[in-house]
């Protein structure tokens, strides 16, 4: 699958991409009162670029220039932008 093919609401996405950059993490408060770290990364392949949302420990494992494999990712839309994350059941592997 390629970035250009992704649409919001698509699940079970497997992608091999390059990380362009990772923004500074920020802290968000969940509806259950738990604080979580989140950061946006820009990823690309030969079809285009998109935003990837990184949560928790993935923020520290991934940096600009890395080649990664996203397995069982989830595509959503946030503030009008399509983005991908590993979600609850997905996995990100640094190559």
The CATH architecture assignment turns out to be Beta Barrel
Q: How is the largest sheet built, in terms of strand order?
A: 1-3-4-6-5
Radius of gyration, taken over Cα atoms and rounded to an integer in Å: 13 Å
Helicity level: under 10%
Summing up helix and strand content along with how strands pair, one would put the structural category as mainly beta
User: CATH topology, what is it called?
Assistant: OB fold (Dihydrolipoamide Acetyltransferase, E2P)
Largest β-sheet summary: 5 strands, mixed, barrel
Determine and state the CATH class.
Mainly Beta
Query: CATH-wise, what's the superfamily?
Result: Nucleic acid-binding proteins
What is the number of independent domains?
A: 1
The beta-strand count equals 7
Distance between the termini: 18 Å
Strand content: over 45%
What order do the SSEs take from the amino end to the carboxyl end, as H and E? EEEEHEEE
Low-confidence runs of at least 5 consecutive residues: none
Shape: globular
Mean pLDDT across all amino acids: 94
């Amino acid at each position: 699958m390629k970035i250009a093919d992704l649409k919001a609401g698509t699940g079970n996405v497997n992608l091999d991409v390059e990380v362009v950059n990772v923004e500074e993490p920020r802290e968000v408060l969940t509806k259950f009162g738990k604080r979580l770290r989140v950061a946006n990364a820009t990823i690309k392949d030969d079809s285009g670029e998109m935003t990837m949302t990184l949560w928790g420990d993935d923020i520290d494992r991934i940096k600009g220039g890395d080649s990664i494999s996203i397995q069982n990712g989830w595509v959503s839309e946030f503030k009008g932008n399509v983005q991908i994350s590993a979600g609850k059941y997905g996995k990100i592997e640094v190559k």
